[in-house]
């Protein structure tokens, strides 16, 4: 018998949708869904939440977020098991996600207390000598937050934490694959003292998503997901702020002076963490020709040691993809690359939703697997002739989140940091390193705004200037 999960404050009627375990395929819960006919009620609730949120003091917002962080930490194993059950992450990876979510909530609490605005030095400018003032950071109002399946707890925390810290209300639409972690986090926020109407959680299809995005009362859409959906949101949104993380195709450069053992270990983790379902996961590894063969051989050998299987098993390294369909689509892309001349070094084996870590070389630059985000445990190895050649290949894609370089030369590392067109450059780390306090977002096509708690907080608030003109001398 499966659990029926109801979001707080929403009348779902008879709409229900199943949530499946990606590894077993079994239905683990049913969640209540709504369609676009409910948009009026939803926006009305969010308006009430907006007024309630704006009235909360910074101390209250911070205290709620701090208490939530402690509750999630105390219940960490329960949250981790839920992530494994609905997202298919291995238990080790799920525990790390919970720890990151605790940090995200704590950082959000600190931002509520800290980031209140600044003094503006009006009297530093001629003609304003008798003026003084400041600016505050005020809530935008209603934030629409749309989250993906791959980090079902921490990416929700990255939307809710800064929004609540800034005094906003939120309409949250989590992935249909992984709504349970989001619902449990919202329940925990309410338990910690957040007024219930401040966050409205919706489960449903594209119609309710489009209705939320286009609602005039919504002042910002914060979206993490794919390019096609991001484009649709930007067309439908109208005059409001947009913040989007739309994926990547991360390159990592391995120079001839790199520590190859460290580079192999880091890149294997970077490529296959969370079954490769990671927007900053390492996808293209560009290797100096002088060290290409030893790197390739060591990388393939290390990849073959990874255990693929039951994500609840402590010894599993790579769990399932989110659906069997995702696994089949990945294998089709790899087969197409091989048909065009790519060489398969290992992997490309599919068993249900389990897709074996896959390594390719000699992939033509015209292949989908080279040009587009794989979002799967697939990595491409490619030699280069010079540093300039490596940079050119790394930058050849139209969008970019993170990049990495392994080198022992400081001058090369700093040159790469300057020349790589990416939102983050990881030196002697794979592309998938992320700390929740740093700015996070993409370069080039589709890049809009930044996450990372402080930066999301500032995206979700607006400055208000107060200026006092001293008309006479004060005695």
Automatic annotation (TrEMBL):
SUPFAM superfamilies given in the database record: ALDH-like
InterPro entries in the cross-refs: Ald_DH/histidinol_DH, Ald_DH_C, Ald_DH_N, Aldehyde_DH_dom, ALDH-related_metabolic_enz
Keyword match Transmembrane helix: no
Limits of the Aldehyde dehydrogenase domain: 17-466
A Pfam short name: Aldedh
Keyword Oxidoreductase found: yes
Entry keyword set: Oxidoreductase
Gene3D superfamilies for the chain: Aldehyde Dehydrogenase, Chain A, domain 1 (3.40.605.10), Aldehyde Dehydrogenase, Chain A, domain 2 (3.40.309.10)
Family statement: Belongs to the aldehyde dehydrogenase family.
Stated name of the protein: Aldehyde dehydrogenase
Organism of origin: Streptomyces lomondensis
Taxon lineage: Bacteria, Bacillati, Actinomycetota, Actinomycetes, Kitasatosporales
């Amino acid at each position: 018998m499966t659990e029926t999960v109801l979001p707080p404050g929403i009348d779902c009627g008879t709409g229900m949708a199943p949530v499946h375990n990606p590894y077993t395929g079994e239905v683990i819960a049913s969640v209540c869904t709504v369609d676009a006919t409910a948009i009026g009620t939803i926006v009305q609730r969010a308006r009430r939440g907006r007024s309630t949120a704006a009235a909360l003091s910074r101390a209250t917002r911070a205290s709620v977020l701090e208490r939530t962080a402690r509750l999630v930490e105390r219940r960490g194993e329960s949250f981790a098991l839920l992530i494994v059950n609905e997202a298919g992450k291995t238990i080790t990876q799920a525990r790390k996600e919970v720890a990151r979510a605790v940090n995200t909530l704590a950082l959000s609490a600190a931002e509520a207390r800290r980031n209140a605005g600044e003094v503006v030095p009006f009297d530093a400018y001629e003609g304003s000598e008798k003026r003084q003032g400041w600016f505050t950071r005020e809530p935008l109002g209603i934030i629409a937050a749309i989250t993906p399946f791959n980090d079902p707890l921490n990416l929700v925390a990255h939307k809710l934490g800064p929004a609540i810290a800034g005094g906003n209300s939120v309409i949250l639409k989590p992935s249909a694959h992984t709504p349970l972690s989001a619902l449990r986090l919202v329940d925990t926020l309410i338990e910690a003292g957040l007024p219930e109407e401040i966050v409205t959680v919706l489960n449903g299809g594209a119609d309710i998503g489009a209705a939320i995005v286009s609602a005039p009362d919504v002042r910002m859409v914060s979206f993490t997901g794919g390019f096609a959906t991001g484009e649709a949101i930007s067309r439908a949104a109208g005059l409001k702020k947009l913040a989007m993380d739309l994926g990547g195709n991360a390159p990592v450069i391995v120079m001839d002076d790199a520590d190859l053992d460290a580079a192999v270990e880091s890149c294997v983790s970077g490529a296959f963490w969370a079954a490769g379902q990671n927007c900053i996961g390492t996808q293209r590894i560009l290797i100096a020709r002088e060290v290409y063969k030893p790197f390739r051989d060591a990388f393939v050998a290390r990849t073959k040691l990874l255990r693929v299987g039951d994500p609840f098993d402590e010894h599993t390294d790579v769990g399932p993809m989110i659906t069997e369909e995702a696994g089949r689509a990945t294998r089709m892309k790899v087969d197409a690359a091989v048909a065009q001349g790519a060489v398969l070094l290992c992997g490309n084996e599919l068993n249900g939703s389990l897709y074996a870590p896959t390594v390719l070389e000699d992939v033509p630059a015209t292949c989908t697997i080279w040009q587009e985000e794989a979002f799967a445990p697939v990595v491409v190895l490619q030699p280069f002739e010079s540093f300039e050649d490596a940079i050119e290949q790394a930058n050849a894609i139209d969008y970019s989140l993170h990049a990495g370089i392994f080198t022992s030369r400081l001058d090369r590392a700093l040159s790469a940091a300057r020349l790589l067109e990416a939102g983050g450059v990881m030196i002697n780390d794979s592309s998938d390193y992320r700390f929740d306090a740093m700015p996070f977002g993409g370069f080039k096509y589709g890049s809009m705004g930044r996450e990372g708690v402080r930066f999301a907080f500032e995206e979700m608030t607006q400055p208000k200037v107060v200026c006092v003109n001293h008309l006479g001398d004060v005695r």
